[in-house]
Design goal:
This protein is mainly α.
Length: about 130
Amino acid sequence: MSNIYDSANELSRGLRELPEYKAVKEARDAIQADAEASKIFADYIAFQHEIQVMAQTGQMPDASFQEKMESYGKQIQGNSLLSAFFAKQQQLSIYLSDIEKIVFEPISELFKIRIYLIKSGIFLRNF
């Protein structure tokens, strides 16, 4: 049996070889080379982080956040480098979603067994 860390590193190398990964990397590099696209992208990422912090602290975004989100959406759609990046990122995310399902399938099975046991009225200590 192979070492699980070797398998994870092999998966990492495989991801880097995907045409979709290379396309996202090239799109990101193009954004970084363009001052306008780079600024919009950095501002958008900071805004997303702000929303995540609010969600983690139980705060609800107000109407101004919705307006900001719409504004960023328009800026991203209006910039060919940014819209290409997000489209390519979406293509890559299909692989990542599939891989996540495969990797976490054993964990999911464990929890399904536990839920079944609980629903069946079987309570096992330390299970």
